[in-house]
From TrEMBL:
Keywords: DNA-binding, Transcription, Transcription regulation. Pfam families: HxlR. It comes from the Bacteria. One of its GO terms (molecular function) is DNA binding. Signal peptide: none annotated. PROSITE patterns: HTH_HXLR (PS51118). Gene3D superfamilies: Winged helix-like DNA-binding domain superfamily/Winged helix DNA-binding domain. This is HxlR family transcriptional regulator. InterPro entries: HTH_HxlR, WH-like_DNA-bd_sf, WH_DNA-bd_sf. Residues 10-109 form the HTH hxlR-type domain. PANTHER family: TRANSCRIPTIONAL REGULATOR, MARR FAMILY (PTHR33204), TRANSCRIPTIONAL REGULATORY PROTEIN (PTHR33204:SF39).
Length: 126
């Protein structure tokens, strides 16, 4: 494999992992796993997201093919978001990561606490 090709592949993987691993992407994928939702229902489900961030993230997810956007010709127009087949495929690793996090949260917190004690002791000695 050429070095340039490997770098391009790494850049692509890094860019896409940044998108699918984003805090808001994961929460939107989780929320839409229950079925299609309107914008305000998503905003209520993901309580700490701003309207601007939700709109931006949904636009990016639609662009990347994870989410579809349907507009109903009502007054005012009704917009519904749903996972595409690609978005549904993304659910598996998202849910696996969420499960792993839940199973290991105590170990992570214990490691952080041990590190913080070690670092605090090292700073006092310096």
């Amino acid at each position: 494999m050429r070095q340039g090709h490997a770098n391009e592949t790494c850049q692509t993987i890094s860019e896409l992992l940044s998108r699918v691993g984003d805090k808001w992407t994961i929460q939107i994928i989780r929320a839409l796993s229950a079925g299609p939702m309107r914008f305000n229902a998503l905003r209520r489900e993901i309580t700490d997201i701003s309207q601007k961030m939700l709109a931006s993230t949904l636009r990016n997810l639609e662009r990347d093919g994870f989410v579809s956007r349907s507009v109903e010709p009502t007054k005012p127009p009704s917009v519904t978001y749903a996972l595409t087949e690609l978005g549904e495929d993304l659910q598996r690793p998202v849910f696996a990561l969420a499960q792993w996090t839940g199973e290991n949260a105590q170990r992570i917190h214990a490691a952080r606490a041990a590190y913080d004690v070690t670092q605090a002791g090292g700073r006092d000695a310096a």
